[in-house]
């Protein structure tokens, strides 16, 4: 005997009520539902299996959790108005008035791309399905990736050019340093050669001065010898002349002999 199939309203944590068939033994085509693992007929959402409890909570009187959630969300948005654009779709979703879902859909579409991507990634993770991509958003993302890629390539090219420029500057600096060292070495050698030449000239000059002084000394010595000889000769002549003079004086002073008488 088949069981009666009912549609039961299941209220989620967000207060939203979804319809679900219970005590279901057949699929839409009227065929028995079979467990793929055991091959045995099964009953989906069998309400006769399991135990159920009723939980009562003390607090403000609300007809549904949906109304309580709505009041709490509105109070939260009043306390933090800056977050309203980020959670407006969630608040609209729990409202108990017509077209609340439409409000939620439109507010959700206005969320920042980063929030939408995070929501889609979370939904895909929970359902095990790949996230659905909006073609317009995918195109926009592809264009952004192309722009980023172009910017990255331009940056890499600029960095490469900067690196080549820096390498060229380093090579030029090294070449300039090598030339400066070579010029300094050439100047040192030229200075050394000039000093050697100057030293040679100084030696030659000193040698010439020594020779000149030696010649002058020899000439002076000969001159002194000649002067001494001439002085000796002069004094000798003077002495001889004096002697002759003295002899003459003596002869003149000597008495003259009287001529003898004939």
Measured distance between first and last alpha carbons: 235 Å
Given helix and strand content, the structural type is mainly alpha
Parts with pLDDT < 50 across at least 5 consecutive residues = none
What would you report as the Rg, rounded to the nearest angstrom?
68 Å
Strand order, biggest sheet? 1-2
Write the layout of secondary structure elements.
Blueprint: E1 6-11, E2 17-22, H1 65-79, H2 84-93, H3 100-109, H4 113-127, H5 135-253
Antiparallel strand pairs: 1-2
Helix pairs in contact: 1-2, 2-3
Give a short summary of the structure.
This protein is mainly α and 262 residues long. Helix 1 packs antiparallel against helix 2 and helix 2 (84-93) packs antiparallel against helix 3 (100-109).
What does this protein structure show overall?
It contains five helices and two strands; from the N terminus they run E-E-H-H-H-H-H. It has helices at residues 65-79, 84-93, 100-109, 113-127, 135-253; strands at 6-11, 17-22. Strand 1 (6-11) and strand 2 (17-22) form a beta hairpin. The longest helix is centred in the last third of the chain and has 119 residues, at 135-253. It is rod-shaped, with a radius of gyration of 68 Å. The termini are far apart.
Can you give keywords for this protein?
single chain, 5 helices, two-stranded antiparallel sheet, mainly alpha, 262 residues, 5% strand
């Amino acid at each position: 005997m088949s069981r009666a199939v009912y549609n039961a309203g299941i209220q989620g944590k967000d207060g939203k009520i979804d319809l679900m068939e219970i005590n279901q033994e057949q699929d839409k085509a009227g065929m028995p539902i079979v467990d793929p693992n055991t091959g045995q007929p099964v009953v989906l959402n069998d309400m006769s299996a399991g135990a159920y409890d009723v939980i009562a909570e003390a607090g403000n009187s609300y007809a549904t959790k949906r109304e309580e959630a709505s009041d709490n969300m509105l109070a939260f948005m009043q306390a933090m108005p800056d977050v309203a654009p980020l959670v407006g779709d969630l608040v609209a979703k729990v409202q108990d008035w017509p077209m609340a879902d439409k409000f939620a859909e439109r507010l959700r579409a206005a969320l920042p791309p980063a929030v939408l991507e995070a929501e889609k990634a979370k939904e895909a993770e929970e359902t095990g399905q790949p996230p659905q991509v909006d073609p317009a958003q995918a195109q926009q993302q592809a264009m952004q990736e192309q722009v980023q890629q172009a910017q990255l390539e331009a940056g890499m090219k600029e960095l490469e050019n900067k690196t080549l420029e820096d390498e060229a500057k380093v090579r030029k600096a090294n070449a300039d340093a090598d030339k400066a060292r070579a010029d300094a070495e050439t100047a040192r050698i030229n200075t050394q050669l000039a000093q050697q030449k100057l030293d040679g000239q100084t030696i030659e000059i000193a040698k010439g001065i020594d020779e000149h002084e030696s010649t002058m000394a020899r000439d002076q010595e000969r001159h002194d010898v000649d002067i001494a000889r001439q002085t000796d000769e002069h004094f000798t002549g003077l002495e001889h002349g004096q002697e002759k003079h003295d002899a003459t004086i003596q002869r003149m002073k000597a008495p003259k002999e009287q001529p003898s008488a004939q």
